[in-house]
Amino acid sequence: MTSAPALTDGFHLFLDALKLNGINTIYGLPGIPITDLTRMAQAEGLRMISFRHEANAGNAASIAGFLNGAKGVPGVCLTVSAPGFLNGLVALANATTNCWPMILISGSSEREIVDLQQGDYEEMDQLAIAKPLCKAAFRVLHAEDIGVGVARAIRAAVSGRPGGVYLDLPAKLFAQTMDAAEGKNSLIKVVDPVPRQLPAPESVQRDLNLLKGAKKPLIILGKGAAYAQADADVRALVEKSGIPYLPMSMAKGILPDTHEQSAAAARSFVLPEADVVMLIGARLNWLLSHGKGKTWGGKDHKAWGGQKFIQVDISPTEMDSNVRIDAPLVGDIGSCVSALLAGMGNNWAKPPVEWTGAIAERKNKNIGKMAETLAKDPAPMNFHSALNVVRDIVKAHPDAMLVNEGANALDFTRSIVDMYQPRKRLDVGTWGVMGIGMGFAVAAAVESGQPVIAIEGDSAFGFSGMEVETICRYNLPVCVVIFNNNGVYRGTDKNLSGGADVAPTVFVKDSRYEKLMEAFGGVGVYAATTAELRRGMEEAIRSRKPTLINAIIDETAGTESGRITSLNPAAALKK
Ligand code: FYN
Ligand code: ADP
After folding, report:
1. Across the chain, which distance is largest between two alpha carbons, in Å?
2. Mind listing the pLDDT tens digit for each residue in 184-224?
């Protein structure tokens, strides 16, 4: 008697395909049709992190992609169909905008019914909807194609300019069976998922020639440089060239912010003054005022300031997107930077001291002014005094991950809290999106194993606050600090109609956010003084217990939209 051949099914083929490619963690939320998949994932040894809302699972996956993408591992988010898929889609679009590799995998309803629009449970043509919002989108209909589907999704996410990928898995796929040996054979371990892309030697030479002639050179490091994990070479390039550098927000820490070549504290001086600017993994988008206008010394808001630009980027079509790029260097940052280093030789002349000296003077003045402000300890706390505590704690724990969102809470943290290591600062990114906080905090803890400090505006926290339960459930070493000033931007706005409702930007006064964490067994701290805040944070880091500190900030302290007030349209008519 011959025994029946061993079978496998869609569920297991899919999980085996992930594991084969080094994907060991799934961020998601169970429900029809993927509930069993989440159980089996756990059974098969994957880490299944279940959230309370798909938006937060999606954000977690996207930042996992930022942290691991250069090693060929994208972040993975798993959701149910239609509404769950749509909830995850904001994060997928955000990941794509930020150039982070993430795969959103959603279960979907019966194709026959969806395509004839006959009204299935959670009916939606998810593939069509995802397509314009991500880098690539695929659907797998047959178990034997799962290997190819997962391989294509991984390659699309992590190769070239990284981005978001959608993978549609209809419910019927999971129960399909096939011969186990054939199934195993159908899986693909992706070879060289992040192939090096070497720059052309003549482009390297063009860059070096331009850089050599510069009197006032400047390097701008963007989050692409952090993403690439070419930390030692990027640092060597900055140090060997002697060129001052500006880190974009998530590039802080590639070199320690205390580095003598950092020009961060002289930002508004160096941008208009520089004559040659080398962008490494940074785009000339709104965060850099599109490379023109008054920020760059142009005479009006659209005028070119006269700088020459070198741009190092993996995407050739990024060049000239806003202003002329005189010396494009297309390739992966690791390869480009090492080619530049090799081409510089051993006698590279440092920039003129008139330039570096002028920056140092400006920078030291600003740092001195900042030190005076930080030394004050007013009651109630303001952003500066509270962040002075955070600054000390991060300095003492440079391994800790820092998550940051808000308006004022974001902008002040960026300029006050120095970072010492690469990829430790995770924030609102290219869109300036609110709601990333708890999703990022969960993934930062899971992926790094390090303590996480999340500095949250009280408004920003609200978008993902329920995930404090997730933080407690997985017992993650996350310390959430809410900068509570009673509202969006601040807590003092008035209802312009004089009616009984509070103004649209105002929250319940004196909210006790710390009790949210206590509700799930974590530690809640009410901190009205810097001493209480310091004690709370130190204890959170020491104990590694989920902690939420409600830091009471002067409700008059914030400004509208933080440092991007100018983006608010002003009324032309005064009523
Ligand atoms: C920076 N600065 C410092 C230091 N670091 N002073 C002293 N010490 C230190 N260490 C100075 C710096 O020179 C600037 O002053 C100022 O602090 C701010 O620096 P920053 O943050 O680098 O520069 P700026 O102008 O805010 O940068 C523009 C930006 C940034 C667009 C890149 O604002 C940004 O990333 N914004 C994101 C905003 C966002 O997404 N918000 C969420 C939505 S909120 P000066 O040189 O004097 O200018 C919805 O409402
Ligand atoms: P920031 O907001 O910090 O200025 P951006 O997100 O605007 O940074 O820019 C990141 C850039 O880095 C993108 O243009 C992207 O194509 C590029 N990039 C990402 N990863 C790599 C890589 N490994 N090599 C080269 N360029 C990269």
Report:
1. 91
2. 999 999 999 999 999 999 999 999 999 999 999 999 999 99
Which pTM value belongs to this model?
0.98
Look up residue 534 and give its DSSP letter: H
What is the whole-number distance in angstroms between the Cα of residue 161 and the centre of ligand 2?
8
What is the position in ligand 2's atom list of the atom closest to the CA of 313?
26
- Rg over alpha carbons for the chain, rounded to the nearest Å, is 25
CB 329 within 8 A of CB 310: yes
CA atoms within 13 A of residue 315's CA, in its CB half-sphere: 14
CA distance 463 to 475: 21
Rounded Cα–Cα distance for residues 538 and 284 (Å): 39
Class of residue 567 by CB neighbours under 10 A (exposed 0-12, middle 13-18, buried 19+): exposed
User: Of the candidates 443, 405, 421, 391, which has an alpha carbon nearest to the alpha carbon of residue 226?
Assistant: 421
Does 315 sit in the ligand 2 pocket, CB within 6 Å?
A: yes
Residue 88 parent element (H or E): helix 82-98
- Residue 343 tokens read as 């081409």
In this structure, which residue's CA is closest to atom 44 in ligand 1?
A: 407
Q: What is the pLDDT of residues 317-372, one digit of tens each?
A: 999 999 999 999 999 999 999 999 999 999 999 999 999 999 999 999 999 999 99
For residue 414, the ligand 1 atom closest to its alpha carbon is 21
- Structure tokens, 209: 């020639």
pLDDT of residue 1: 56
Q: How far is the CA of 287 from the centre of ligand 1 (A)?
A: 10
- Indicate which residue's Cα is closest to atom 19 of ligand 1: 415
Strand order in the sheet with 478-484: 425-427, 401-405, 452-457, 478-484, 547-552, 523-527
Quote the CA–CA distance of 62 and 99 in Å, as a whole number: 10
User: 401-410 pLDDT, tens per residue?
Assistant: 999 999 999 9
pLDDT for 120 equals: 94
User: By the 8 A CB rule, do 551 and 560 touch?
Assistant: no
